[in-house]
Amino acid sequence: MEALFKESPHPDDKQREELGKKLGLHPSQVKFWFQNRRTQIKTTQERRGNLFLRREMIRFRDENKALSDIITKSACSNCGAPASAKHTVIPSEFQQLWIENARLKSENKRLLEVIGKHASSESPPARSTCSPRNDQAVNMRCSLDAFSNVYGLAKSQIVGIVNKSIEELIKMATEGEPLWIKSFETGREVLNYEEYLKDCSVENFARKWPNGSSIEASRDSGVVLLDLPTLVQYFMDAKQWQEMFPCMISKAATVDVINSGEGVGKNGAIQLMFAELQMPTPLVTTRRVYFFRHCKQVTADKWAIVDVSIDKLESNIDERCYKRPSGCIIEDTLNGHIKVIWVEHMECHKSLVPSLYRRIVNSGLAFGAGRWLKMLQLQCERLVSFTATNVHTNNSYGVFTLAGRKSILELAQRMTTSFYRALGASNYHTWNTATSKTGEDIRIAWRKNLSDPKEPLGVVLCAVLSVWLPVSRQNLFNFLRDETRRNEWQTIVNKGPVRNIANLVKGQDQRNAVTIQAMKQNRKSVRILQDCCTNAFESTVVYAPVDISSMQSAMQGCDTSDIAILPSGFSIIPDGVESGPLLLSSGTEGGSLLTIAFQILTSNSPTENLSMESFKPVNKLVSCTLQNIKTALRC
User: Are residues 368 and 430 located together in one domain of the fold?
Assistant: First the structure.
């Protein structure tokens, strides 16, 4: 009945009668079972919806309180008098940090109370050193010394677990059959779980969710252009790690340091980290995961970095995902290249995934090792291009100095990172749904930029639409990045052709490039900065208008940190339909999942409130762009 329910929640009389005969039940019993099952699912969905709304209410309340406190406590630097709310300026990033800081303080207070209760029950009151107090140093010492209280494990046990995890990671990375079996249908390696549980599994810390869980395991290997110490540093620094994978990590933080490691490479370092992983669409829920990251030098030229979650965290910490020993083996090939073997092994709470993304998420491609590795290779090529001094003229024209090249590439990277941040389902955004004239659901979110010079000041509206198109990813990417075809999809009327005045290639693939385009809009010359990225998994085309004087300043090598930029663009990923060897050999390609995202400044006043009328222009912009793309590609 469960299997039939997944295919058809509303069986007809004939189906109920046939099922009743097979199970020896009366058709009315089958009917009542399906009714109860539908009611159960509806109740669960409503409960989740209520929980989400409750969390949003708490978040808004904390944000409102934080802003009120800032306005109340802010004072003039000259006279000391309280500043008025009218002139109070609060950076959007500071708002987010304020809210996150409040949450962490609350969490820290709760943990210290748990520690204090535990300590008082096991030791004399006079020797209890972990009671809550205002001394920051004491709090930090309590936090570092109290792993046995908070996680149910002593610090030595955590060290033992991460060391065993390193051993498991090396096995998972180096062994072939029977541990890994190659799939005939997809050509990818599949983990043999019988062998895994027999030989590799570190103590069973698997989380048991009430409604079950899904397990994803994948492995991939490749070569990257970067020196080994620098790459290790990127992994061990939460901020740099997030910058390395902007399309995959919406948030990252080092929660605690258990062992700081030795030397420049932090050999032996262990730290508790948090990450929120995302897809390039607001439709797919982000994955929140806490894990211990351990860095270890295996041999003179080989390092291992392992991530592992421990199922001993407090039960009220909202974990959506759990990492079994995962990570990468990094080996220096001594020729300027590094060989990386990446293993990703996760257990996740089963959640509802929209049908549009169900194939690619359930197949494990969305958050698998291949995607991580391909993005790492792309980003390492970008880092190398920043410092390159011998760029061939065919790969760079229009910008005549190395300083200018670096400035343009840095500005483009900031633009693309900002695009990904605006695109995902992180709880930094509150998405509202609006229906276009053609019936698609458009997600809309807005934010107020009060003082951040990196984007225009005022109210910023972001509209996102994700659809399936019967066009291969590469064909769609080539169409959208081609400046000669820009007028085919862009809704703003241009007079005259669009031409590239600069092109900076930033990788081995010539299509991974930053271009500066010149066009005429309303009889005015306009400059468009465009960043194109593609790898074996996903492609993006991100662009933003930049005023001519700022663009010329960047091309000359000046600082670009104060250039306000508001990116829009496209993200393209495969639809996840598996192709067999016969289909592959025929050259047939599947469809694509296209996400269109536009950001517009609706008002220069950050205090202005939005109305439903404000959504109409961006709604029309998204709908018309999609229609133009379909028309141009004959979808």
Answer: no
Q: CATH number of the domain that 395 lies in?
A: 3.30.530.20
| Residue from 194, 616, 567 nearest 434 by CA | 616
The count of domains in the chain is 4
| DSSP H or E stretch at residue 587 | none
CB contact at 8 A, 314 and 182: no
Judgement on whether residues 188 and 108 belong to the same structural domain of the protein = no
Is 78 inside any structural domain?
Answer: no
201 and 291 within one domain: yes
Structure tokens at 92: 């959007």
Q: What's the pTM value of the predicted model, to 2 decimals?
A: 0.73
- Domain shared by 357 and 480, yes or no: no
Q: Quick one: pLDDT at residue 292?
A: 92
- What residues make up the domain containing 97? 89-150
Q: Does residue 282 have a cis peptide bond before it, meaning omega lies within 30 degrees of 0?
A: no
Q: Which pLDDT score, from 0 to 100, does residue 92 have?
A: 45
- Last residue within a domain, chosen from 330, 364, 385: 385
Contact 382, 245 (CB under 8 A): no
Cβ atoms of 571 and 281 within 8 Å: the answer is: yes
- List, for residues 191-208, the tens digit of each pLDDT value: 888 888 877 666 545 455
Nearest to 597 by CA among 576, 572, 574: 572
Answer yes or no: are the C-beta atoms of 503 and 409 closer than 8 Å: no
Mean of the per-residue pLDDT values for the chain? 79
Please count the other Cβ atoms lying within 10 Å of the Cβ belonging to residue 308: 25
The answer, yes or no, to whether residue 308 has pLDDT greater than 70, is: yes
pLDDT digits (tens, 9 = 90+) for 597-622: 999 988 887 777 777 777 888 888 89
Residue 262 DSSP one-character state: B
Contact 469, 476 (CB under 8 A): yes
DSSP 8-state code for residue 565:
-
SS3 80: coil
pLDDT tens across 418-459, in order? 999 988 888 767 777 777 666 778 888 888 888 888 889 888
**Residue where one domain finishes, among candidates 99, 134, 150:** 150
